[in-house]
């Protein structure tokens, strides 16, 4: 689960719920700067803080710890149940990577023509840069995160 970002997920839920950072901070009885640090961090806050944030936003704690809350919100508002959105299958990931490679290829020749590059070395160098950008775009956008939680509240258990 190395790709899950708690702060980013919290920010998206807060925006979806149409709540400002100041409103969240006052609901949590902390400063706006402290709340901003929570949203800016990838790390999970304390369990009690997660429960308090969930209560303030009017969501379940599992929504704060799961990347699938948006699919559930969209499906529940559209009347659909047990259906997911924005999940890329393995074939979709391959097609996405292929499209990025084509875009990098096209961008290379477009940049070479626009800059009037005649040197083969300069064109190959430009192509390598575009393919690296495409690779990192693919690597950082195709993610899979799954977290199953059943409780409405979280409890810290010591092992």
Structure description:
The protein contains 8 helices and no strands. With 159 residues, the chain is mainly α. The protein has 2 domains: 72 residues, lambda repressor-like DNA-binding domains (434 Repressor (Amino-terminal Domain)); 52 residues, no CATH class. The longest helix has 25 residues. The two termini are 20 Å apart. About 11% of the residues have low confidence. Pfam families: HTH_19 (PF12844).
What characteristics describe this protein?
159 residues; mainly alpha; 434 Repressor (Amino-terminal Domain); elongated
Fold blueprint:
Blueprint: H1 6-16, H2 21-28, H3 32-40, H4 47-57, H5 61-64, H6 69-77, H7 90-114, H8 120-141
Helix pairs in contact: 2-3, 7-8
Total domain count: 2
H and E string? HHHHHHHH
> Gyration radius, to the nearest Å?
21 Å
Q: Please give the count of helices.
A: 8
- In the predicted model, the low-confidence regions spanning at least 5 consecutive residues are 78-87, 144-151
Largest sheet: none
- Tell me the name of the CATH class of the largest domain: Mainly Alpha
The fraction of residues in strands falls at: under 5%
Number of strands: 0
Q: What is the CA–CA distance across the termini? A: 20 Å
Overall spatial form: elongated
Question: Looking at CATH, which topology of the largest domain would you report?
Answer: 434 Repressor (Amino-terminal Domain)
- The CATH architecture name of the largest domain reads Orthogonal Bundle
What is the structural class?
mainly alpha
Please tell me the overall pLDDT.
76
